[in-house]
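Session log. Operator J.P. requested a structure for one protein chain; no other inputs attached. Running the standard single-chain path with token output.
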Amino acid sequence: MRYVALGDLVADCYYKNVGQDKELIKIDGGSSRFNVIANLAARGNSTCVISGCGQDLVGKIVLNSLMRLNVDTSFVIRKGNIRTRAYHLTVEGNKHICTKTCPICGNRTWYNQEVVTIEYYKKHIKKDDILILDGLKPENIPIIKTFPNEKVLDIGRIKRLDGLSNTEILNILQNKNIEILQLNETVEQYLIRRFKISKLLELFQILEPKFMIVTRGKEGADFVTQNHIIHKTLIHCQKEVDDTGAGDAFFSMFIQKYYENCKRISRGWIDETFLLANDLTTRVVSHLGARGHLYDGYYLKNINNCICKED
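Structure written below.
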């Protein structure tokens, strides 16, 4: 059994304000599904990414960030005619502004067409792979519908849901192979309104996952299984530097413990796993970046221009 993330790789580029200018200070791997994989790999789980990226410096950094955690990157396609996808985050205290456009040169560093095709996935996904997916992006929907593998799915944004009818949402999410479905509070409330219901338990009954997690930020999380809701309250970190990736790390712990416990869920198991997940997220938010708790990261020196123009 291995955990597998699909889709093109993404970088997180961090900047700080220097007077009226921006200064690039750090580049690391990003995107929820790959952050989940990184956390799983750091704890010794078998992991793989089937992906694509550019042959640029950013792509090299993102690949190295996974390889140093022993993630299998054998099936990553690198193309020389693209720049690796990148989010640009300007850090101000413990807050950040995120764009897909370089704040130094103004270039958009995000291509929309996937490098990797579903046919490529079919060649390399094994029947017992557990697929890590985030969001209902167009490239994820056929994977959810057609691949028989067990899947864990995190939906953190409502943007993609707006373009789907209620019937389409149900056709995607009422999938017997979705083992764990994680939503944040915004998505939960959006779906409750969409389906004209009033309670989380009704939403669980409509979507029919094996196990549902609803994260509520600093208020903690709700866990739903077998028509029961268990609420857990977070123990807060005293030193919060950056909350990027906290939800991904939290999710990774529940994924791992779910399978280690042979998919058995109990109140005691939720209590125990929540303590481990809470401790992990406390470490995540104490560092800059989603993976700062896993390794030192790539703090750049001697780069006088923006990363978009490097050769």
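Operator note: The chain has one domain: 3-295.
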